Amino acid sequence: MTDTPPRVAVYDLDRTVLRTPTFTLFLLWAAWRDAPWRLLLLPALAALMIGHALGFYGRDRFKPAAIRLMLGASIAPTRARRLAVRFAAWRVPRDVPPGAAACIARDRAEGFRLLMATAAPEFYAGAIADALGFDAIVASRHRRDADGNWLPALDGSNCYGAEKARRVAEWLAATGAGNAHIRAYSDHVSDAPTFALAREAWLVGRSAKVVRLAAQHGWQVADFEDGAAGASTAVR
Fold first, then answer.
1. What is the pTM (predicted TM-score) of this model?
2. For the chain, which terminus, N or C, has the lower number of CB atoms within 10 Å?
3. Interstrand relation of 200-204 and 181-186 (parallel, antiparallel or unpaired)
């Protein structure tokens, strides 16, 4: 008799667990809550976003610059926690698609550990994961100073694409789940490296493009706007 392998469900955050991308939204919301004068810097933020969109620099440069601009050169731990918890309370459950909520509930009921894997900064993504009852999170890390303050600079690489898959594999190994049955959910083809770790890969969306991409890669399609998305309970 063989032991049943552990089960892990890996969820992306932006446009998967939540409908709305969180990074720019969090910066604007936090600035409005804590330092409304920083909203005067919106033209500079827009210029940063345009430069990134045009390929002048990547996420590893854009994200720290945007955080510094809208949140400041450092964020005290108490301030970061307060903003993160309030932001999570604002987004959860109102921005969670019904199908996402159904799949999360189904996976939890079937004994899957819930892992959020996101490129979003860990200091607020962790609060969203907590609000949704996730067991763990891998996210973009940011440096801390000697007093524990969060700094805009990334600590390592942005948790995206191949780096996200590397971090997920690292977490699986560290938790003794290297042989786990993995379900992975994401709205974007950039998570193909994470899907490669999974026995079940679900591309989230309902467009013809999503269906075509899923068929090309051998993935399944999950429509998270459909509350019946979590109806199937069979482990594949």
1. 0.95
2. N
3. parallel
